[in-house]
Amino acid sequence: MADQSLDQEISAVAEALAGQHKILLTTHIKPDADALGSLLAMHRALTGLGKDSVMYLSDGEGMAPEYRFLRGLDQVLPEPPADYAERALCALDCGNAERIGDGVLLEAATTVINIDHHGDNTRFGDINLVDGSASSTAEIVYRILERMGAGIDEETAEDLYTGILVDSGRFQYSSATPATFRVAAELIDRGVDHARVFRIIYETVPLAKTRLLCRMFARLQLACDGRLAIGVLEQDDFEQAGAEAGMTEGLVDSLRAIEGVEASALIYRRPAREGEEPGAVQYRVSLRSSSEAVNVQALANIMDGGGHRQAAGFSSDKSAGELASFIIGQVSAQLGLD
Question: What is the pLDDT of residues 39-74, one digit of tens each?
Fold first, then answer.
């Protein structure tokens, strides 16, 4: 029954998109590979179907440099199009409306289509397609495009493959199901050079990011009998390393890779935005788990964040020390160490 319901939701979204001519595509702030890949693939496919599609990001802060090889990013608008109120809004990979970063778009949209794979999605759309069992939003977008009969060329396939590769944790998370591997194989059949994509993302690391990694490990804190690793990066770490905000991507996974560690957290300062009061500067927290005993999504939800059991995050105006104490307390409780 669940599969039948999901199939109906895919059909509903495919029909809704087919019935719209003017569409505004967006994704979440600080977009990751899944967000960008889904955005670009959907735009290219809709344009190929003759739709008037535009892409917009309310805040591209911290876009990881390793994803800039994706083709079409120069077409993403930094401001909403003048006719945004006339367009259907399609939000990709946004667990809640706040993740879009621009509430006026939701208020003005003729129709809101919400496509996501976060199980804690708030279903904020007029039409919602949320599959918490999918490896990524890119995997869902692939199925929508298939249902619409949209062409998936080599560039579109590369976008989708990149989203799946990264959000499935290089196919190591439990969300990488046999269906995920079948989709990945289909995309490779359509021309994706998977070895090239892997090299660009994981084996072409800027020196500044390596220096940032070293500074993170210099502040390494182990807790919960060595089963939790916490890293902290302050603004001076970015400055001394010559690193930009997006270079935090993947660092939390390096913490989790330490022998004996089952969960990891990276606490890093978000750059201040122009015009903000000093006190408004927040920390972002990235969380990872390789243990069934630690659900980082539940931890993030407490702080109004979200994600998945194995990968989640949130933002906070608390201090780094307060956040570390909170994380230690929550992980200790989940591990039964209290």
Answer: 999 999 999 999 999 999 987 666 889 999 999 999
Residue 280 has pLDDT above 90, yes or no: no
Nearest-angstrom CA–CA distance, 335 and 332: 5
**What local confidence, expressed as pLDDT, does residue 1 receive?**
34
Tokens of 163: 């989203």
What was the pLDDT predicted at 128?
96
Is residue 103 packed enough to be buried (19+ CB in 10 Å), middle (13-18) or exposed (0-12)?
A: exposed
The span from the CA of 64 to the CA of 31, in Å, is 8
Per-position DSSP letters for 215-284, written without gaps between them: HHHHT-EEETTTTEEEEEE-HHHHHHHT--GGGGTTHHHHHHTSTT--EEEEEEEPPPPTT--GGG--EE
CA 63-77-95 angle, to 5 degrees, is: 55
12 in Cβ contact with 129 (< 8 Å): yes
What backbone phi and psi angles, to 5 degrees, belong to 64? -65, 135
Q: Are strands 283-289 and 228-233 parallel, antiparallel or unpaired?
A: unpaired
Which domains can be identified in the chain, with CATH numbers?
2-201 (3.90.1640.10), 207-335 (3.10.310.30)
CA distance 79 to 60: 11
d(CA 167, CA 140): 12
**pLDDT score recorded for residue 308:** 87
Contacts of 323 (CB under 8 A, 6+ apart): 267, 283, 285, 316
Residue 265 CB coordination number (10 Å): 30
Do residues 227 and 335 lie in contact, with contact meaning Cβ atoms separated by under 8 Å?
yes
pLDDT at 60: 60
Q: How far is CA 91 from CA 167, 218, 275, 315, in A?
A: 17, 39, 28, 20
Identify any residues that bridge with 159 across adjacent strands, giving them in sequence order.
none
CB contact at 8 A, 302 and 287: no
Mean pLDDT, range 149-157, rounded to an integer? 96
Please count the other Cβ atoms lying within 10 Å of the Cβ belonging to residue 320.
Answer: 18
